[in-house]
What does this fold into?
Amino acid sequence: MADDLERLLDEVERRLCRLPGRGAAGGHRHGDGEEAAAAAKAKEGRSAKLLMSAGSSEEDIDDIIDEICNDSSFTKTPLKLKSNSASLTPESNSAVVQAHRKRCCPVYLGGSTSPYGIGTNISKRTCDQLRCTACDFRVSLFNDYIWDQSCDYLFFRNNMPELSKLRAKMIKKKGARAYACQCSWRSIDELTDLQTDQQLRWVCGKHAE
It folds into this structure.
Protein backbone atom coordinates (compact mmCIF):
# COMPACT_ATOMS: atom_id res chain seq x y z
CA MET A 1 0.00 0.00 0.00
CA ALA A 2 2.84 2.42 0.86
CA ASP A 3 4.58 1.70 -2.48
CA ASP A 4 1.39 2.48 -4.41
CA LEU A 5 1.03 5.80 -2.58
CA GLU A 6 4.65 6.68 -3.34
CA ARG A 7 4.20 5.97 -7.05
CA LEU A 8 1.01 8.05 -7.14
CA LEU A 9 2.69 10.98 -5.41
CA ASP A 10 5.68 10.80 -7.77
CA GLU A 11 3.39 11.00 -10.78
CA VAL A 12 1.53 13.99 -9.32
CA GLU A 13 4.77 15.79 -8.49
CA ARG A 14 6.15 15.24 -11.98
CA ARG A 15 3.10 16.76 -13.58
CA LEU A 16 3.03 19.70 -11.18
CA CYS A 17 6.74 20.41 -11.75
CA ARG A 18 6.27 20.57 -15.52
CA LEU A 19 3.59 23.29 -15.38
CA PRO A 20 5.80 26.17 -14.06
CA GLY A 21 8.48 25.47 -16.71
CA ARG A 22 5.99 25.84 -19.54
CA GLY A 23 4.50 29.03 -18.20
CA ALA A 24 7.85 30.74 -17.50
CA ALA A 25 9.16 30.40 -21.12
CA GLY A 26 12.84 30.28 -20.20
CA GLY A 27 12.62 32.07 -16.81
CA HIS A 28 15.12 32.10 -13.93
CA ARG A 29 16.75 28.69 -13.28
CA HIS A 30 17.37 29.59 -9.64
CA GLY A 31 13.66 29.93 -9.03
CA ASP A 32 13.04 26.56 -10.64
CA GLY A 33 15.45 24.91 -8.23
CA GLU A 34 13.74 26.44 -5.21
CA GLU A 35 10.36 25.33 -6.46
CA ALA A 36 11.63 21.78 -7.00
CA ALA A 37 13.07 21.68 -3.47
CA ALA A 38 9.79 22.98 -2.01
CA ALA A 39 7.83 20.38 -3.98
CA ALA A 40 10.09 17.60 -2.70
CA LYS A 41 9.56 18.74 0.90
CA ALA A 42 5.83 18.89 0.34
CA LYS A 43 5.93 15.39 -1.12
CA GLU A 44 7.76 14.08 1.93
CA GLY A 45 5.29 15.81 4.25
CA ARG A 46 2.27 14.34 2.45
CA SER A 47 3.82 10.90 2.45
CA ALA A 48 4.43 11.10 6.18
CA LYS A 49 0.85 12.29 6.78
CA LEU A 50 -0.59 9.49 4.68
CA LEU A 51 1.46 6.89 6.49
CA MET A 52 0.51 8.35 9.85
CA SER A 53 -3.17 8.46 8.91
CA ALA A 54 -3.06 4.84 7.70
CA GLY A 55 -1.39 3.77 10.92
CA SER A 56 -3.82 5.76 13.05
CA SER A 57 -6.80 4.29 11.22
CA GLU A 58 -5.53 0.78 11.91
CA GLU A 59 -4.99 1.72 15.56
CA ASP A 60 -8.53 3.16 15.73
CA ILE A 61 -9.97 -0.10 14.37
CA ASP A 62 -7.99 -2.11 16.93
CA ASP A 63 -9.20 0.17 19.72
CA ILE A 64 -12.84 -0.24 18.65
CA ILE A 65 -12.50 -4.04 18.57
CA ASP A 66 -10.86 -4.06 22.01
CA GLU A 67 -13.59 -1.79 23.39
CA ILE A 68 -16.34 -4.10 22.11
CA CYS A 69 -14.61 -7.21 23.48
CA ASN A 70 -14.02 -5.59 26.87
CA ASP A 71 -17.52 -4.13 27.18
CA SER A 72 -18.94 -5.56 30.43
CA SER A 73 -22.52 -5.23 29.27
CA PHE A 74 -21.68 -7.29 26.16
CA THR A 75 -19.76 -10.07 27.91
CA LYS A 76 -21.77 -10.36 31.12
CA THR A 77 -25.32 -10.03 29.88
CA PRO A 78 -26.70 -13.56 29.39
CA LEU A 79 -28.95 -14.37 26.52
CA LYS A 80 -32.55 -14.97 27.56
CA LEU A 81 -34.22 -17.72 25.65
CA LYS A 82 -38.00 -17.59 25.47
CA SER A 83 -39.74 -20.85 26.07
CA ASN A 84 -42.43 -21.76 23.57
CA SER A 85 -44.44 -23.52 26.24
CA ALA A 86 -46.08 -21.29 28.81
CA SER A 87 -45.49 -22.24 32.41
CA LEU A 88 -48.48 -23.42 34.36
CA THR A 89 -49.54 -21.24 37.28
CA PRO A 90 -51.37 -22.70 40.31
CA GLU A 91 -54.60 -21.24 38.89
CA SER A 92 -54.13 -22.91 35.52
CA ASN A 93 -53.18 -26.18 37.24
CA SER A 94 -56.41 -26.16 39.22
CA ALA A 95 -58.35 -25.38 36.04
CA VAL A 96 -56.77 -28.38 34.32
CA VAL A 97 -57.66 -30.62 37.27
CA GLN A 98 -61.24 -29.36 37.30
CA ALA A 99 -61.55 -29.98 33.57
CA HIS A 100 -60.65 -33.66 34.09
CA ARG A 101 -63.20 -34.28 36.87
CA LYS A 102 -66.46 -36.09 36.12
CA ARG A 103 -69.98 -36.10 37.54
CA CYS A 104 -72.24 -39.05 38.21
CA CYS A 105 -75.11 -39.38 35.76
CA PRO A 106 -77.41 -40.53 37.17
CA VAL A 107 -76.55 -40.13 40.87
CA TYR A 108 -77.05 -43.24 43.01
CA LEU A 109 -77.41 -43.75 46.76
CA GLY A 110 -76.97 -47.19 48.29
CA GLY A 111 -76.27 -49.38 51.27
CA SER A 112 -72.84 -50.26 52.63
CA THR A 113 -72.50 -53.15 50.16
CA SER A 114 -72.83 -50.80 47.15
CA PRO A 115 -69.40 -49.72 45.83
CA TYR A 116 -68.41 -46.06 45.54
CA GLY A 117 -67.49 -44.45 42.24
CA ILE A 118 -68.77 -42.53 39.23
CA GLY A 119 -72.34 -43.61 38.63
CA THR A 120 -73.58 -44.25 35.10
CA ASN A 121 -76.42 -46.20 33.55
CA ILE A 122 -73.97 -49.05 32.95
CA SER A 123 -71.79 -48.75 36.06
CA LYS A 124 -74.24 -48.26 38.92
CA ARG A 125 -71.95 -47.01 41.65
CA THR A 126 -72.95 -44.87 44.63
CA CYS A 127 -71.69 -41.30 44.76
CA ASP A 128 -69.42 -40.38 47.67
CA GLN A 129 -68.93 -36.76 46.55
CA LEU A 130 -72.41 -35.49 47.30
CA ARG A 131 -73.05 -31.82 48.12
CA CYS A 132 -76.30 -30.12 49.13
CA THR A 133 -77.28 -27.06 47.09
CA ALA A 134 -79.70 -25.93 49.82
CA CYS A 135 -77.34 -25.68 52.84
CA ASP A 136 -74.05 -25.84 50.85
CA PHE A 137 -72.76 -28.67 53.05
CA ARG A 138 -71.00 -31.79 51.92
CA VAL A 139 -73.15 -34.86 52.51
CA SER A 140 -71.70 -37.16 55.17
CA LEU A 141 -72.31 -40.91 54.99
CA PHE A 142 -71.87 -43.67 57.53
CA ASN A 143 -71.75 -47.34 56.59
CA ASP A 144 -73.76 -49.88 58.56
CA TYR A 145 -75.83 -47.21 60.31
CA ILE A 146 -79.33 -45.71 60.00
CA TRP A 147 -80.84 -42.61 61.60
CA ASP A 148 -83.20 -42.82 64.53
CA GLN A 149 -86.80 -41.88 63.69
CA SER A 150 -86.65 -39.04 66.24
CA CYS A 151 -84.10 -37.08 64.13
CA ASP A 152 -85.25 -33.61 63.06
CA TYR A 153 -83.95 -30.56 61.22
CA LEU A 154 -82.59 -28.83 64.36
CA PHE A 155 -80.59 -31.91 65.35
CA PHE A 156 -78.61 -31.88 62.11
CA ARG A 157 -78.50 -28.10 61.96
CA ASN A 158 -76.81 -27.94 65.35
CA ASN A 159 -74.63 -31.05 65.20
CA MET A 160 -73.36 -31.49 61.63
CA PRO A 161 -70.69 -32.53 60.87
CA GLU A 162 -69.47 -33.55 64.37
CA LEU A 163 -69.64 -37.35 64.52
CA SER A 164 -69.42 -37.44 68.32
CA LYS A 165 -72.74 -35.58 68.54
CA LEU A 166 -74.38 -37.38 65.63
CA ARG A 167 -73.79 -40.78 67.25
CA ALA A 168 -76.56 -39.99 69.75
CA LYS A 169 -79.13 -40.81 67.07
CA MET A 170 -77.31 -43.35 64.96
CA ILE A 171 -78.51 -46.97 65.06
CA LYS A 172 -76.29 -49.85 64.00
CA LYS A 173 -77.64 -51.80 61.02
CA LYS A 174 -75.47 -53.99 58.84
CA GLY A 175 -75.73 -53.38 55.10
CA ALA A 176 -77.34 -49.95 55.54
CA ARG A 177 -75.84 -46.48 55.01
CA ALA A 178 -76.82 -43.24 56.75
CA TYR A 179 -76.63 -40.01 54.68
CA ALA A 180 -76.96 -36.47 56.08
CA CYS A 181 -76.19 -32.82 55.37
CA GLN A 182 -77.18 -29.87 57.56
CA CYS A 183 -80.78 -29.80 56.36
CA SER A 184 -81.66 -33.32 55.11
CA TRP A 185 -80.96 -36.94 56.03
CA ARG A 186 -81.72 -40.41 54.66
CA SER A 187 -81.24 -44.06 55.67
CA ILE A 188 -80.62 -46.24 52.58
CA ASP A 189 -80.58 -50.06 52.38
CA GLU A 190 -80.39 -50.68 48.62
CA LEU A 191 -79.31 -48.96 45.39
CA THR A 192 -81.52 -45.92 44.79
CA ASP A 193 -81.60 -43.35 41.99
CA LEU A 194 -81.41 -39.89 43.56
CA GLN A 195 -83.92 -38.56 41.01
CA THR A 196 -86.65 -40.61 42.63
CA ASP A 197 -86.44 -38.46 45.79
CA GLN A 198 -87.55 -35.00 44.70
CA GLN A 199 -87.16 -33.47 48.17
CA LEU A 200 -83.40 -33.92 48.30
CA ARG A 201 -81.23 -31.11 46.90
CA TRP A 202 -78.13 -33.24 46.64
CA VAL A 203 -75.87 -33.22 43.59
CA CYS A 204 -72.62 -34.89 42.59
CA GLY A 205 -69.65 -32.67 43.45
CA LYS A 206 -67.48 -34.31 40.73
CA HIS A 207 -64.98 -37.14 41.00
CA ALA A 208 -61.28 -37.14 40.15
CA GLU A 209 -60.43 -39.66 37.45
